[in-house]
Amino acid sequence: MAQQSILGRIGQLARANINALIDAAEDPKKMLDQMVRDYSRNISEAEEAVAHTIGNLRMMEEDSREAQEAAAEWGAKAHAAAAKSKELLAANPTEAGRFENLARVALKRQIGLEELVKDLAPSIAQQTEVVAKLKSGLTSMYEKLEQLKRKRDEIVARAKMVKAQSKVYDAIKSVNITDPTSELSRFEDKIRREEAKVVGQAELAASSLDAQFESLDDVSEDFEVERRLAELTKDG
Length: 236
Fold this sequence. Notes:
By secondary structure, this protein is mainly α. The chain has two domains: 177 residues, Orthogonal Bundle (Helix Hairpins); 57 residues. 92% of the residues lie in helices and 0% in strands. The protein contains four helices and no strands. Helix 1 packs antiparallel against helix 2 and helix 2 runs antiparallel to helix 3.
């Protein structure tokens, strides 16, 4: 039954390799590619073991077939020798006895080969069942390998997507930390101060102009006073 544990041992080895790779994984693609390579190698080892088991089965089947053919040939020889012995029994008893002995030898060979065929039958049946199970196990391993390859492609694609999303979120976080609009508000405050300064200068200029016009009004008023005074003091 040792052959039946072949795929089990290989499966355990594959799982151990996969678990070790997952624990040490940094780059998902490299890790999954290595998993595919390791599992493919495990399948190759399983194929070799199964091929060896099948070879042993075919050898037993060939031995059984050759034994059956040889048994049939010795049976035919025994039948021919017995017939010859019967034919010579009356005319030549000595020669008839010799052929009878040959028939006995042939029958012994026939019986021995038939027993060999009988002994091989249970082993052949058992190994045939084992080979069927091993072939089924290999088929399952092939399917698992294809699943692993498909899963690898899916996980790699998801990993790339997550990495891209992470970069976007990092950029957003960076924008939140160093908000460029805060710099704009500084410029806006500076411009508002400049605008206020200009408004102040305009108001100051307007006040100065009003004062000048007021002084002109005063000069005009003084002129009128002097004119009228001159008229009052003018000679008769």
